[in-house]
């Protein structure tokens, strides 16, 4: 890992959202009313909406989905997701920041969904995998911190 990635990882903090989330598959042709519904159901909280090809995916707090579900009876819903925010601003030209984190999760056999915003990344894991995910991620951060301090041989 290069020095700039190491420095970013060494100062990364993990924040776990208190809410449980759902991943929802909606038809591709959802109309703009969904955005208004989300704005009301989520208020200032986290949600992610992605349209790709023939589907629209929504990652939203379970409580918010409960308020929306009746409007979308054909939706496919996967429950029990937790959101880990990587509290670190990562410039768009940085390569390799997520790689050691994803590798650690893979080595721990933790499936992950990556949700990237303009300057912040979020990882979604299943509730039962949250402790293992946090442990794996924290280990990567601790190694980076020790290497930053020149303590990698300890």
Write up what this structure looks like:
The protein is of the alpha+beta class. 35% of the residues lie in helices and 29% in strands. It is built from 5 helices and 7 strands, in the order αββαββαβαββα. Strands 1, 2, 3, 4, 5, 6 and 7 form a 7-stranded antiparallel sheet that branches. The longest helix has 19 residues, at 130-148. It is elongated. The two termini are 19 Å apart. The mean pLDDT is 90.
Features:
154 residues, single chain, elongated, 5 helices, 7 strands, alpha+beta
Compact description:
With 154 residues, the chain is an alpha+beta fold. Helices cover 35% and strands 29% of the residues.
* Main sheet specs: 7 strands, antiparallel
Portion of residues in beta strands equals 25-35%
- Chain-averaged pLDDT: 90
* Residue runs with pLDDT of under 50 for 5 or more positions: none
Structural class: alpha+beta
SSE string, helices as H and strands as E? HEEHEEHEHEEH
Estimate the helix proportion, in percent: 25-40%
Oligomer type: single chain
N/C terminus separation: 19 Å
Number of E-type strands: 7
Report the principal-axis shape: elongated
């Amino acid at each position: 890992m290069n020095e700039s990635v190491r420095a970013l990882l060494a100062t990364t903090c993990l924040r776990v959202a208190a809410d449980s989330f759902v991943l929802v598959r909606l038809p591709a042709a959802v109309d703009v009313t969904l955005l208004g519904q989300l704005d009301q159901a989520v208020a200032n909280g986290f949600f992610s909406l992605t349209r790709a090809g023939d589907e629209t995916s929504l990652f939203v707090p379970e409580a918010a989905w409960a308020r929306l579900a009746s409007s979308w009876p054909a939706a496919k819903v996967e429950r029990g997701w937790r959101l880990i925010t990587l509290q670190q601003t990562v410039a768009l030209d940085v390569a390799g920041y997520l790689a050691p984190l994803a590798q650690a999760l893979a080595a721990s056999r933790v499936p992950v969904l990556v949700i990237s915003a303009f300057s912040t990344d979020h990882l979604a894991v299943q509730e039962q995998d949250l402790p293992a995910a946090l442990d794996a991620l924290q280990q990567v951060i601790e190694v980076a911190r020790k290497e930053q301090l020149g303590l990698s041989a300890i």
